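WARN no homologs supplied; continuing
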Amino acid sequence: MTGCGTTSPAPSASSHAIVHVVYAGSLAYINDVVLGPAFTHATGNRYEGQGGGSFAMAKELASHLIPGDVFESVGTAPIEDLEPKQTTWSVRVSATPLVIAYNPKSPEASYFRQVAEGKVSLKAFFEYLASHRVNIGRTNPLTDPQGQAFYEMVELAVMHYHLPSDTVQKILGPWNNSKQIYSEEGLPTELQSGGLDLSSAFLPEVIQDHMDYIALPGWLNFSVASDASWYAKSSIDLPSGRVHGQVLAIWATVLNKSGVGAQFVRYLLKHEAVLRKYGYPPLSPVVQGNAKAVPANVPHV
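OK structure emitted
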């Protein structure tokens, strides 16, 4: 596996293009700071990125409000909103494990630290959240898969530990609880500024931002492919319908048969070691949708 850099000469100026990459907000660092500049250095093609909640970005792409050659989302549902006009397929890139970030200056920080170190059980932790006033932040389940997964994670914990049926309500309130919901971009800032005690987060975010966090076991972090049937036991009822828990994976697609987009997705899939370093455990690159439409230079199973 190679790193992001390359010693190969860049293409001639006449072959340069711009690749517009639209991505789930949690991918900002890996795209804008790591892979995007490295792709430009390796190919000569200029990288431009724009991020936000996966479903919100999909709506903007579908309405042609923003340009896009590549779309990277958490889960396939946002990409499916662009089918069949802009794409008919997506390829799985990596997992993005769910964690619980906490503010080290919170009055509850010492307790959270004990949970993170395994000195307090997760069962006791969820019981604590249900019985104490803790300021929790999460993203909107209506526009962001992280928000859906965080809600479903608490449901799974309640089922697994046989906690009282009202535990989810006591910890989170309704799915659209305005006291807890923040934008994907604003949530880490709110936590780090002291406005929250705990927040939903993905592992890459806490690694990149050096945040304190509670790691979750595979059966709770939505990153283990073999646990898919267990994740599906959880669900959240949204205005658009019931959504069941699923593996939290990064999926990518090329929009409108963009040649430079295919080049970027290939570059992404060729750098597993870089993804792993920044908190994205690689998953085999299987295809969802029309496999025959995947460009020949994009590796997939």
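The domain at 13-95+248-293 is CATH 3.40.190.10 (D-Maltodextrin-Binding Protein; domain 2).
OK
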